[in-house]
Amino acid sequence: MAYEDPWQPRTKLGKMVKEGQITSIDEIFMLRKRIQEVEIVDLLLPDLIDDVLSIKLVTAQSDAGRKRRFKATVAVGNKNGYIGVASAKKRDIGPAIRQAIVNAKINITPIRRGCGSWVCSCGKAHTVPFKVFGKTGSTKIDLIPAPQGLGLVAGGTAKTVLTLAGISDVWSKTRGETRTTENFAMATWVALRNTYRYVIPSRRTTRTMED
Fold it and tell me: What is the pLDDT, as a whole number, of residue 205?
């Protein structure tokens, strides 16, 4: 008895991945394709780890009365150069977390790592290659290259995101309302995403997301 494949791609990119025309997540970003199906990420990045950053109860007033929902913020990463962060709201905690994981996978982005600290010349990919900035809402964060062995000098939320991305050493400087977990996580994600968007001298001939 034949069983139907549960994934039926809805996008051209999904069909290319399922048919084997694209076999690496790196190819997708080199081609500047937008990921719209979580199955693409599940297939090409099967080693992703997820971490629930926050769960909070939110309420909204409508004509039918007050609606209560749970909002989950989740980060996913493979600790080797890929990171995604997203949130989702549902009536129950479980569905909210599961949807947030799906959204974070669709938001997955590559980052560049290096040895950008002037006091460190180890040549290993342990920190950000240069200073980057991220902002979400009123929350702003600078990620600054640090020497190997320093660790992550950052708040708890940023530490989780950085660890999942594969960054082990960094200095950080924050401004604004960092107690808002969602904004803090998203600002850190934006800063890490910017390591891939900016062109550095040694990578002038390398295709980037902004080429």
Answer: 35
